[in-house]
Write a structure and sequence with these properties.
Number of strands: 0
Largest sheet: none
Distance between the termini: 38 Å
Radius of gyration: 32 Å
Order of helices and strands: HHHHH
Length: about 150
């Protein structure tokens, strides 16, 4: 006889395994600090490249103005503004990346804990079934007594 609770648990575990296990296991292979540090390093590189591209697009868009005023430009204030904007840009995206990485790690850890709890429930169900089947087997032997005391 098929136990419906166990069947539903198996279906839920299979769905979870298909959807979340790969990313959750990959994330949980790291310690939380290591995972967040890795994400922040990647964020630093991507943010720097994105800022350089944005700066290049802005320079290309205003190329005529830049070339016409090239002799009159004072580069120190322009460089200071570029660096300040870069630090603000980097700071904002670092906070976003830190928060996102932390949330991803916590969710992956919770997902794996939930999956392990489901596995424990499944094991308890099987142990309970084995225990019940062993007692049923012992009871069968009690019905066939060899001692006839009639």
């Amino acid at each position: 006889m098929v136990d419906k609770r166990r069947l539903y648990l198996m279906i839920a575990m299979a769905r979870f395994k298909d959807k979340k296990t790969d990313s959750s296991v990959r994330i949980s292979n790291y310690h939380q600090r290591d995972y967040i540090a890795m994400k922040l390093i990647v964020n630093f590189l991507v943010t720097t490249v994105a800022y350089i591209l944005l700066l290049a697009f802005y320079a290309m868009y205003n190329l005529e103005d830049i070339l016409s005023n090239l002799n009159e430009m004072n580069f120190r204030p322009i460089l200071a503004v570029i660096i300040v904007f870069y630090l603000v840009f980097l700071g904002v995206y670092t906070v976003i990346a830190f928060t996102r990485a932390r949330i991803q790690y916590v969710r992956a850890d919770a997902d794996l804990e939930q999956y392990e709890n489901a596995l424990d429930r499944m094991n308890r169900m099987y142990r309970e079934e084995d225990r019940l089947s062993e007692t049923d087997d012992e009871d069968d032997y009690d019905y066939f007594d060899d001692d006839d005391e009639d």
